[in-house]
Amino acid sequence: MQQDERRRPRGGRAPIVRDRDAFPSTAAEGVVYGRNEVRELLRSGRSVDKIFVRRGDREGSINVILGLASERGIPVIEVEREKLDQMCGGGVHQGVAAMAAQKEYCEVDDILRIAEERGEMPLIVILDGVEDPYNLGAVIRCAECAGAHGLIIPKRRAAGLTATAAKASAGAVEHLAVAKVANLASEIDKLKERGIWLYAAEAGGENLYEVDLSRPSAFVFGSEGSGVSRLVKEKCDYIVSIPLYGKVNSLNVSTAAAVVLNEAAHRRHSSK
């Protein structure tokens, strides 16, 4: 009973997510560690993807950090000390580290404004639970090459704009607006209200090459393991699939994004 009470968030503290896989496998760029350093990072207003705290450590100045994270809606992930040691390259982390974003996130309205300024129908990419930063970076590159106006990712259970993702994008992250939202399903409802058609890229859907893509569009690509989540899929107007002719029945998310987004871009530009 006492253990359960310790796990329950109190007094507005940021909720703890127990996720052993939500940390980098090697010491990473963009990691800020140490209690004072993380506290000042949070106070600075700079974009922060995640806070990592040592399991069971919720005393003293850690509570101040948790409170600041909660105010800003930043996910807090509880990990073992060994994982913090690994993240921080053996530095003195005092039980806490933060993953700072390599680029400031924008709002979804900013993405729609970019399309309006270009005089184009919105072409938006949505990633639903893509946790591999290499895949995130590769999708950013695909989206920018296809002329997309921006990309939307969720705050939780997703890779953020880390140094690894930025590097994997081959510089494309500097040219593509990226928004981070608390609730993908809710954001999809708002996009639909603004005349955006939603397409989920999933197996078992309509043939991509036979679906009308010549309208304001947002394309949803799911996680590496489970694909697009059920709720998000149900909210989409279309489920589209890429015809495959080999024995392997799926494509990597970034490869699928390249095919789908370039097909959408081709249709738009060939009709001009």
Description:
This protein is α/β, with parallel strands linked by helices. The chain has ten helices and eleven strands. The chain has helices at residues 2-7, 35-44, 61-72, 81-87, 108-118, 133-145, 163-168, 184-193, 230-235, 253-270, and strands at residues 16-18, 31-33, 48-54, 76-79, 96-100, 123-128, 150-154, 178-181, 197-207, 217-222, 238-241. The strands form two sheets. Strands 8-7-6-10-9-11 form a six-stranded parallel sheet, with helices on both faces. It has a five-stranded mixed sheet with strand order 1-4-3-5-2. Strand 3 (48-54), helix 3 and strand 4 (76-79) form a beta-alpha-beta unit. Helix 2 runs parallel beside helix 3 (61-72) and helix 6 (133-145) runs parallel beside helix 10 (253-270). Residues 1-13 and 15-27 have low confidence and may be disordered.
Mean pLDDT across the residues is 86
Given helix and strand content, the structural type is alpha/beta
Q: Helix content range of the residues, please?
A: 25-40%
- Main pleated sheet: 6 strands, parallel
Distance between the termini: 66 Å
What is the radius of gyration computed over CA atoms, rounded to a whole number of angstroms? 20 Å
Main-sheet strand order equals 8-7-6-10-9-11
SSE series: HEEHEHEHEHEHEHEHEEHEH
Question: What sort of overall outline do the alpha carbons produce when their principal axes are compared?
Answer: elongated
Strand fraction equals 15-25%
Total helices: the number is 10
Given as residue ranges, the uncertain stretches (5+ residues, pLDDT < 50) are: 1-13, 15-27
Number of strands: 11
